[in-house]
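Lab notebook, bench 4. We co-purified these components, and the gel suggests they stay together. Before we commit to crystallization screens, I want a quick structural picture of the whole thing.
Request: model the full complex, all chains together.
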Amino acid sequence: MGWQIDTAQVEDLARGAALFGTGGGGDPYIGSLLARQALADGPVAVLDLSELPDDAHVLFVAMMGAPTVMVEKLPSLDEVIEPVRALGAHLGRPVTHIACAEVGGVNSTIPVAAAAALGLPLIDADGMGRAFPELQMVLPTLIGVTASPLALSDEKGNVAVLQTIDNSWTERIARVATVEMGCSTMIAGFSMTGAQARAGLVGGSLSRCITVGRAIADAREGKTDPVTAAVALLDGRELFDGKVVDVQRATTTGFARGRARIEGEGGTVLTLQFQNEHLVAEADGRILATTPDLIMVVEGETGEPVTTEGLRYGQRVRVLAAPADERWHCPEALAMVGPGYFGYDLPAHRFDGTVSTGAVSTGTVSGIAAAEEAK
Amino acid sequence: MGWQIDTAQVEDLARGAALFGTGGGGDPYIGSLLARQALADGPVAVLDLSELPDDAHVLFVAMMGAPTVMVEKLPSLDEVIEPVRALGAHLGRPVTHIACAEVGGVNSTIPVAAAAALGLPLIDADGMGRAFPELQMVLPTLIGVTASPLALSDEKGNVAVLQTIDNSWTERIARVATVEMGCSTMIAGFSMTGAQARAGLVGGSLSRCITVGRAIADAREGKTDPVTAAVALLDGRELFDGKVVDVQRATTTGFARGRARIEGEGGTVLTLQFQNEHLVAEADGRILATTPDLIMVVEGETGEPVTTEGLRYGQRVRVLAAPADERWHCPEALAMVGPGYFGYDLPAHRFDGTVSTGAVSTGTVSGIAAAEEAK
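Here is the predicted assembly.
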């Protein structure tokens, strides 16, 4: 059933989305500021996927670029709706619904802001059920939805509309344009019918974010363990508990790339590899989880999600893992978002430690070492 | 009066344009192949600027990128018209005339090919009276004509339409997109009315190219000196005669950048600095000519223009200079295309050795040395 999202839910949404965002998707505080501002004049209607008419015209609205930069460049509401306006003009037919491309701090609240500013309903769904760093990495790509025409705009007023031969080319051209435009842009694209959205999206994402975000806050207030509460709702498991002892991070080619080492009791070290999002978790020469499953870092005490750009030396953190939407484990999906795509010579490891179907080689830590040497 | 361009004139046009292209604008042979193919079905009507109706809708059509790459990636006619088609659809009103953004081997013949393929008349004019490396560097920029909306397309079928806040931003975003799309794209933009075209363009460019191109060929056949014939028609002078002893060249950020040294009788060395086009000519610590005036290199015997990517060790060449359209010497124009813009701490030197108005500092060779060290 349809419901409404208002300012009271924004904080839980941003917290839950930051968790599902697996380290990416931008700072949840920035995201909630933006949504709160947009919802000041009233709530936004949210529809379930099942309520979407077949002839709906759905667009993804998102921030593209390094979230590291976004923290210092909060977009205005005008900026958020500019690519939707440009794309609507280009397509010559009105947009009827807004959807999230991914769940993640900023990219779950920017669509809320866009829907509020445009007076359009939002869909309780997203394109991934998590966050990923590149534009083509959404489930609709797997059912043939084209990213283009895609509009991108910057805070200065520059706009580009791309029409490309496939979704990877949309990513390539939009990425270099985004870097040139100041490392962060607003985008709108993946024009879908209601039927395509129902087939391609992950349903219930926003309500799930709010539920998990609320459960973490409730546990905190009730003096129970927020991480345990989150893990139960995620059907996941806790991988590690420790202190951040090393973070290497660089903003290159429009991404926040890097590696973090977390030391646990007894000196065991967990290594996380990330590119906007956490991609590989490994400890003692053993792969604990990889993309596409979800690897999440939270503050040890409060359960508050920590983004990859928020990782700091000395932080007490706990690392969680949870299953990705099962569609991410088909061979075509693994070719797009599996460890191999990101340069790790590893098969995809599910969060329970088993190797995913579509695996291309045997996973060893030397795969990581080789990928690191290659960088 | 209007006239027609046919295959018989293509060779002269390409030769003359390569001369006015001051080393840039791409290989004239490639350019003439393309135009010859396009004119196979009949000639293209060419109008004088004075014949252009006020309500005409004029577009520049050009190749963007490193001409070094273009040599290996000859565009098809479909590619040449794709950005015009995309821009026409975006603007929602028909294009009535095609114009050259610059004169230069490929960029004087691509518009001929586009006009032929689209069945539109061409204007006997261009945006510079020479060639320059960046998109905003056309005289219409000085009278407020916007480059955007600008469409660019590659041979794979990717298209982008840019709407930017100024013409320098069109250049910046189109340049990074062009590099990503394979270092060479076709573009269409600078939508102008007939009145704007008359105020902003350099008239008579194409006929001037054909006249000079023909004169060089005629002198060659008549066993007189082709270089003397060209210099007379250009109102220019011969700066130097010698042998290429050193060429440094790199294709970086979408440009062919470099330096050539030419040794004359008695060991005097002339140094040419270029970025697609020749920008500074200097010998014995004296600046002989700089952008915006025209610096041209031709084969010593035949008078055939040599592009910057065609410069080779051991070539016998002669270096000519000629005046730019006088509008290039106003302060706003010098800020856009003077030596300072390209990193040389020099005022603009006219081809006769005098310093241009709008000069910002005293020219010394140390200016070149400083710019080279900074690279």
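The two ends of chain B are 48 Å apart (CA to CA). Worth comparing against the SEC data before the next meeting. Chain B touches chain A at residues 86, 90, 156-165, 169, 172-173, 175-177, 179-181 (CB under 8 Å).
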